[in-house]
Amino acid sequence: QVQLVESGGGLVQAGGSLRLSCAASGRAFSNYAMGWFRQAPGKEREFVAAISWSTSNTLYADSVKGRFTISRDNTKNTLYLQMISLKPEDTAVYYCSTATRIWTMPTMSRADYGYWGQGTQVTVSS
Asked: What residues are paired with 77 via a beta bridge?
């Protein structure tokens, strides 16, 4: 059974930083692309960032490019999202997810991701 557990969310002022973590278990973590998505109240869940199984390829939503950095440590089965220069519009529940197919490039499509964590709340005050 795949399990993803996010942590690191919290309340931060605009311009601040946070680092999210996602601990994975239950499958060969290092063989799958991973992604971060977020969902604000009343909005659809949207893509934030993704990283390939090998870490050599990353993908970002335009809204976070230059401010967020996705990374992974395959020896620890952990995915990270470093967020700087946070804005109030970054407020959302952040979810990590794994790709459904092995050894694929990262994508922005939710349809390519199959397992989800419970989410961690990020709140950015103005």
From this structure: none
